[in-house]
Amino acid sequence: MGKKVKSFTLLLLIFSSVYVNAQVYLSNLNKQANEMISAVKKRDYKTLLTFTHPKVVNAMGGNEKATATLKASMKALEDQNVIFTKIEIGSVTQNLVSGKTIQCIIPQFVEIQMGTKKAKAKNYLFGISYNGGKNWYFLDTAPLKGDIRKLIPEASKDIIIPKSETTYN
Predict the structure, then answer these.
(1) How confident is residue 63, by pLDDT bands cut at 50, 70 and 90?
(2) Domain interval for residue 111
(3) Signal sequence span per UniProt (predicted)?
């Protein structure tokens, strides 16, 4: 009877430790994803780029060129009378540890006003941490049409990116 109690106690401690670690990195994930969304809303491109995967920033030509591209894109949208009325993230839909990374998929909800018309989109962010969930990088999967491995080869093949959805009113 004593061995069963010790074994059960050991298993309980292991599962508790895993649960606590998962809670810490999920808390960091949610906090940082919301900070990223806040940076988008404020047009704080410097902060936004700290959450943007370095391979994306490099593909854009580095921080300065990426900032210029983001500013120009937002200006072009403004000139077309496109206004973001809502940007939010949902709860993690997929989460896995793969090699030395933690990877996840997070839904993102965006509403825009285009003159008299409105659009609602649900797309997905790929999140990846290289340091146990302390820091996260995010990548909008919509422009990649679901194939993030071309840009981020370490993305797990087990990550499945749902199809984006857009409705117009």
Answers:
(1) very high
(2) 2-38+81-168
(3) 1-22
